[in-house]
Amino acid sequence: MGDSIIEVIDVRKSFDTVEVLHGLSLTLHKAETLVVMGGSGSGKTVTLRLVAGLIQPDAGQLRVFGRNIEALSEEELLPIRRRMGYVFQGAALFDSLSVHENVAYPLREHARLREEEIRRRVVHFLALVGLGEDVLPLLPAELSGGMRKRVGIARALIIEPEVLLFDEPTGGLDPTNSKMVGGLIAELRDRGVCATAMVVTHDLELTKTVATRVAILIGGRFAAVGTLDEVLHAKDPAVAAFLAGEAR
């Protein structure tokens, strides 16, 4: 296993009086795709948002690229966030911006490039996710759900991050588009475009397609962590029941 990119150490997080995460610990290593599975409300997205520095833990440590981030200011977090790409559950595209402007947005925020170079990079990263130049002028409302997901992935990739964070990448998609997105994530990993990734999902088929390691989140703690085969054959009754439910 490669060097650790992200370390979650005994992290706790509550909202109002409800503790969602009860001392969570996990490591994401370089060149692996770690899938965090769990049911609705299990804290999967909370975990991802903590790792991205979008929210702060109540206790514990979050170490990203070797630096503790739990107490950093927004300004101090910026150089760390530039090394991470975040793919939001609903793609989170700007409705009033074209595909070109949506994908170019991170470059305009974080780099000083000429317009021709921005366009070249936008076209390149759209091509990586299987989209052509014909989509450049389209608005998000003119795209299918699967296409919006691809554009969201292209936007996350364009800053060439060292790690990609995916929040329910197949959420809301039909089986055909879900399979397409899973295949795309696996292909990008295998080609070395995003070799290190953390994916949160309840989708067992997606997990089987992309995971090099799996963690099952139940009751605010990881009930099982290991290879896909190890987790699928875990003896914990709660893990077995969860997987059986997702397989239906």
Q: Major β-sheet, in short?
A: 6 strands, mixed
Q: Can you tell me the overall shape?
A: globular
Number of helices: 9
Order of helices and strands: EEEHEEHEHHHEHEHEEHH
In what range is the share of β-strand residues? 25-35%
**Structural class by helix and strand composition:** alpha/beta
What is the residue-mean pLDDT, rounded to a whole number? Answer: 89
Helical fraction: 25-40%
Distance between the termini: 33 Å
Number of strands: 10
Spatial sequence of strands, sheet with the most strands: 6-7-8-3-9-10
Enumerate the spans where pLDDT stays under 50 for 5 or more consecutive residues.
none
* Backbone CA Rg: 18 Å
Outline the structure in words.
With 248 residues, the protein is of the alpha/beta class. The chain has helices at 44-51, 74-81, 99-110, 115-128, 145-157, 175-190, 204-210, 228-232, 237-247; strands spanning 4-15, 18-29, 33-38, 59-64, 67-68, 84-87, 163-167, 197-201, 213-218, 221-226. Helix 6 (175-190) links the parallel strand 7 (163-167) and strand 8. Helix 3 (99-110) runs parallel beside helix 5, helix 4 packs across helix 5 (145-157) and helix 6 packs parallel to helix 7 (204-210). The longest helix is centred in the C-terminal third of the chain and has 16 residues, at 175-190. The protein starts with a strand and ends with a helix.
List the helices and strands and how they pair.
Blueprint: E1 4-15, E2 18-29, E3 33-38, H1 44-51, E4 59-64, E5 67-68, H2 74-81, E6 84-87, H3 99-110, H4 115-128, H5 145-157, E7 163-167, H6 175-190, E8 197-201, H7 204-210, E9 213-218, E10 221-226, H8 228-232, H9 237-247
Parallel strand pairs: 3-8, 3-9, 6-7, 7-8
Antiparallel strand pairs: 1-2, 1-4, 4-5, 9-10
